[in-house]
Amino acid sequence: MNPLSDDTPLSPDNSQHPGRDPEAAQRALDEVQRLLHQQKLEEELVHKQHHGESDARHQLVESLVHRQYLQALRKVLEQLHPADIAYILEALPRDQRLTVWDLVKAERDGEILLEVSDAVRESLIASMDTDELVAAAEQLDADEIADLAPDLPQEVMREVEQGLSLEERQQLRAAMSYDEDTVGALMDFDMVTIRDNVSLEVVLRYLRRLDELPDHTDQIFVVDREEHLKGALSFEQLLLNDPEVMVSDVMRGELFTIMPNDDAADAAQAFERYDLVSAPVIDAHNRLIGRLTVAQVVDYIRDQQEAEALSKAGLREEEDIFAPVFDSVRNRAPWLLLNLCTASFAAFIASRFETTVEQIVMLAFLMSIVAGIGGNSGNQTMTLIIRALALGQIRPENLRRLIMKELSTTLLIGFGGGLIAGIFATAISGMIGLGLVMMAAMMLNLVVGATLGMLVPIIRDRFGRDPAVGSSVLLTFATDTLGFLIFLGLATVFLV
């Protein structure tokens, strides 16, 4: 069977607009999986048909079939954007992933390693020797090497640094010196700068001599001889004004600037608020040291959202879906075991009211409603608080007002929901007292859920911990335990 026969679906052609077709990666993945599947089937067929022949002939036929499919796979991969190849690698089991990875051209390794998830990157790096890793890193800029540095062996980083120029080495060390969630860890050193005492014609001639402009270049930064930032020249001003006009006459002197130690989340909010494409990064002496672009901001926001989603599920890190079983267990087990302990404690609390439940069997059916509604109320509040913390909207001066507002909202909802729950409990049990207990327990547990939904993420944030990590587990523990305690306790006091 010819892997490139006429009825074979054509692989996506991204040669003109790589990575722009939103369906290209999926079509390419389907094509890669089809070729890998057909290769396996055909090699099994060849093995059966030529089983009795000499080993040399058998190996030759298998080698030809293998080579034919590898060429077809390589042709598909050559047309793809690095991000699309990364998508394919993440969707393949490890043996197939490494087969595809070996077919990627060496000069593209670095770009693809930047695009894949952290978990998949580890498996790819583990399959590469030192020379391959050094060659991949040498294709990248200093800020990109800094992104890969945590995953690269120390001997690789030493060789990479030796191959850099003095300026690039300084940039690499500077990028690696900043904390992960700061602007310095995200900034790009590749930018265009000019002086203010030249004409626009000179600027145009200078730009034409460049091979290409840095990505997301929407403005040219104006600096003096000591690299102090004086302003920026937009491309609109560059193109619409007369070439004889001086840069100093049309540049913008007032710029939005950021510093390398600024919080990356604050910078991301500024990009959204002011619709920025790029922003200069300056040091304490107003020297231009880099720039932040919207692409880096989008990547940061995406990573933060993924981390938050994982932490809410009790996962410590992003997980390769084809990771070894032990790695997956190590990632998933801790919070699940904690959840088991908290659930067991809630069950223990309920068991202390065995006599009450035996006398009023209906309590066993109703207490799960109280616990569940309290948990849902707490999750609503917690989600809003975590979002507000991420946006920097919660400050000491407005914390009291926020707490009062949330408690007032919860009390109103609790009264309405409790009234409905009380009527329902009365209707199915015929006991007005049980309905009143149900109403009171519902209101109290909603208040408990909302209070903890506020306090848990705020306290974790105050101590410098991720407010999303484990918050849902702690909230569920509290609302289940206290929900059972409140409902069964009130029933014991007033009904038994």
Automatic annotation (TrEMBL):
Q: Where is the stretch described as Disordered? A: 1-25
Q: Name one GO molecular function term.
A: magnesium ion transmembrane transporter activity
Keyword Magnesium listed? The answer is: yes
Q: Which UniProt keywords apply?
A: CBS domain, Cell membrane, Magnesium, Membrane, Metal-binding, Transmembrane, Transmembrane helix, Transport
Q: Where is the CBS domain?
A: 251-308
The residue ranges crossing the membrane are 359-386, 407-428, 434-456, 468-495
- Membrane disposition: Multi-pass membrane protein
The cross-references to PROSITE patterns, in alphabetical order and at most eight, read: CBS (PS51371)
Q: Which GO terms describe its cellular component?
A: plasma membrane
User: Can you tell which superkingdom this protein's organism belongs to?
Assistant: Bacteria
Instruction: Indicate yes or no for the key word Membrane.
Output: yes
Matching entries from InterPro entries are given as: CBS_dom, CBS_dom_sf, Mg_transptr_MgtE_intracell_dom, MgtE_N_sf, MgtE_transporter, SLC41_membr_dom, SLC41_membr_dom_sf
Query: Which compartment or compartments is the protein found in?
Result: Cell membrane; Membrane
Assembly with partners or alone: Homodimer.
State what this protein does.
Answer: Acts as a magnesium transporter.
Question: NCBIfam families given for it?
Answer: mgtE
Q: Which family does it belong to?
A: Belongs to the SLC41A transporter family.
| Protein name in UniProt | Magnesium transporter MgtE
Organism of provenance: Parvibium lacunae
